[in-house]
Amino acid sequence: MNIVVLVKQVPDSGSERGLAGDNTVERQSANNVINEMDEYAIEEALRIQAAEGGEVTILTMGPERAAESIRKALSMGPDKAVHVIDDALHGSCALSTSKVLAAALGTLNPDLVIAGAESTDGRVQVMPHMIAERLGIAALTGARKLTVDGGTLTIERQTEEGYEVVTAATPAVVSVWDTINEPRYPSFKGIMAAKKKPVQTLALADLGIEAGEVGFAGASSEVVEHAKRPPRQGGQKVADDGNGGAALVEFLSSEKFV
Amino acid sequence: MNFDLTQEQNDLREAVSALGRRYGHEYFIGKAKAGEHTTELWAEAGKLGYLGVSIPEEYGGGGGGITELTVVCEELSATGSPLLLLVVSPAIVATILARHGTDAQRAEFLPRLADGSLLIAFAITEPEAGSNFHRLGTVARRDGDDWVLNGRKCFISGVDHADYVMVVARTEDASTGRLMPALFLVPTDAAGLTRSQLDMEIVSPEKQWLLYLDDVRLPAEALVGGSTDAGLPALFAGLNPERITVAAMSAGTGRYALDRASRYTATRQVWGRPIGTHQGVAHPLAHAAIQVELARLMVYKAAALYDAGRDLEAGVAANMAKYATADAAALAVDTAIQAHGGNGMTTEYGVATLLGAVRAGRIAPVSREMILNFVAQHVLGQEKSY
After folding, report:
1. Taking the CA of residue B176 as centre, how many other CA atoms within 13 Å lie in the half-sphere pointing to its CB?
2. Does B244 have pLDDT greater than 80?
3. Where is the Acyl-CoA dehydrogenase/oxidase N-terminal domain (chain B) (predicted)?
4. Contact at CB, A188 and B52, closer than 8 angstroms
5. Is A112 helix (H, G, I), strand (E, B) or coil?
6. Which CA distances in Å does B69 have to A49, B66, B89, B287?
7. How many domains does chain A divide into?
8. Is residue A182 a part of any domain in this protein?
9. What ipTM was predicted for this assembly?
10. pLDDT in tens, A162-202
11. Do B96 and B224 form a contact (C-beta atoms < 8 A)?
12. How far apart, in whole angstroms, are the C-alpha atoms of residue A85 and residue A49?
């Protein structure tokens, strides 16, 4: 099975994050890592490869330093990577990002595309759907379990109430949550091999996309302004002078928690 | 001059750290107090190739050097879940076998040492010959093709779950009559080998053992290197990696203690401000951080010199690194406890649990006094004092 995993480099969600002067995500000063959910996508791809055979390719769109995340992704075990890199991509909206990724996927001819259900920077959760729409293939999104049976894919789609079983034929796009597996750590051999694995770089021209269709120029949405999250409000202290329990219940019910 | 690790070494550092964090200090202490081993962590690190980083690739290892093994030792310790036997099985024994073992010994032992499925302890210290291996009382006598070993060893780590013990004994050179060290691979279930546990005031999953060798009969193949001439160089081959990896563990432990303490002092509020805003609290931690970082630099210098094949210089650096990291780790743990106040002595806050280990670091595997002797003699050119 020919599997492509979408991997995005994002600022570490464990550190202070912000937006740059042009209202794009600040990446220059951030500690950039593989989007956490994408590690689950990589793991899932490697498990399917171990059972079904085939090849796992990492696909990343991002600036030059995203190469570091590609190398780390490859150290987990995938065979090769494609890095779409072009100065004109800076400021791209979700719609134009999906155009670029779909075009790159077109050159790879995958049976299965696996992505994290969301990125920790943008958090819009639309990329898998948009890519599937552009490629004219099925989207199985929000999986907590994925089963491959020949050319049939079945997922358990995680919902707030439980899960739904959804089936599609390959080729398809599957997005996964962090409930699907436990990603492996890169082995030392994997780390040593990562640098030697082929990484193909593609520019917009290679994909037949004009610079004006992407980046700020082609963006369908614009971040107009942003504000810091307001500081956390001091909580309400309940002194227990005998009726602490009642006071707690009163507070919880006033906030509609009970 | 370059103080950076390579990209791969940095990736290894991150990967080992992530693995160690998943286990952490609570796991380590839980196992120690239950009298169990950190088997799961050992097995997982082995499977990922972290235990075998320094073993040659042709024998299933990672093909890296002692620098890579140093990274593994330090990072696991920095997560509060150190693996003491990294110092023994991969650092000492595997290095000795890779450099001085026979082809058959390499083929038999190295692949399993690399994936951690085989554990070999190392026995040199004796009750009557502490630091002085020229006075070893364990004797190997030739009997036909066999060897027969007699003697006692003490402070031997991890024998209870090791498959073999590499025992340092001495033989008599037939022509000169001089006593020469010889190393033997003794199965832990060999007839005549018995052990008793030493009660230690160290919270660790690894126990310390007294070994008794009473007419332990071994085949000729048990002799490391297949010749008594291999003994001395083989022994020396193991000592630098031991010191460097022990030093790495101390450095990692120091980082762990300071990490715990600084997270505590940055968040613990007294009179409306974090206690870390008081210089009386912050400065001792900062001082300890400087000592730990200085000592770490020497650890990596020693590892780099060793991997460059500069054994003599590596020996000086390894001894200095071992001395400096032991003191720095003891200071860091003591300072971390003080910064925690009463909480510092609880098990929950996970710093006083390290007291025994860091104190022992100033004694084992070579005492600070012997290192001072070494530096006085070999660096400062003083006459031997003992």
Report:
1. 6
2. yes
3. 6-116
4. yes
5. strand
6. 31, 5, 12, 28
7. 1
8. yes
9. 0.93
10. 999 999 999 999 999 999 999 999 999 999 999 999 999 99
11. yes
12. 27
Determine the pLDDT at residue B176: 73
E-assigned strands of B188-299?
193-198, 208-218, 269-270, 273-274
In this structure, what token pair is assigned to residue B274?
């974090």
Which of B18, B64, B68 lies at the smallest CB-CB distance from A185?
A: B18
CATH number where A169 lies: 3.40.50.620
Whether residue A232 lies inside any domain: the answer is no
Q: How many residues are there in chain B? A: 386
User: Number of C-alpha atoms within 13 angstroms, CB side, residue A37?
Assistant: 22
Q: Which long-range contacts (CB under 8 A, 24 or more apart) does A226-235 make?
A: A226/A19, A226/A23
CB B208 within 8 A of CB B155: yes
Residue B21 to chain A, least CA–CA distance (Å)? 12
Residue with tokens 């979408």, as numbered in its chain: A6
Domain assignment present for A225 = no
Nearest-by-CA chain B residue for A69: B11
Contact call for residues B243 and B298 (beta carbons, < 8 A): no
Distance of CA A10 to the CA centre of its chain: 9
Helix (H, G, I), strand (E, B) or coil at A27: coil
Tokens found for residue B163:
């498959």
The region, left, alpha or beta by phi > 0 then psi within -120 to 50, assigned to residue A36 is: alpha
Place of tokens 């082809």: B103
Domains of chain B: 7-119 (1.10.540.10), 122-230 (2.40.110.10), 233-378 (1.20.140.10)
Residue A237 belongs to some domain of the structure: no
Which tokens belong to B360? 């022992």
* Chain A residues with CB-CB distance to B64 below 8 A: 188, 192
Q: Do A188 and B18 touch (CB under 8 A)?
A: no
B65-92 pLDDT, tens per residue? Answer: 999 999 999 999 999 999 999 999 999 9
> How far is Cα B72 from Cα B80, in angstroms, rounded to an integer?
13
For residue A87, the enclosing domain spans 2-218
Q: Regarding beta strands A112-116 and A172-176, do their DSSP bridges make them parallel or antiparallel, or are they unpaired? A: parallel
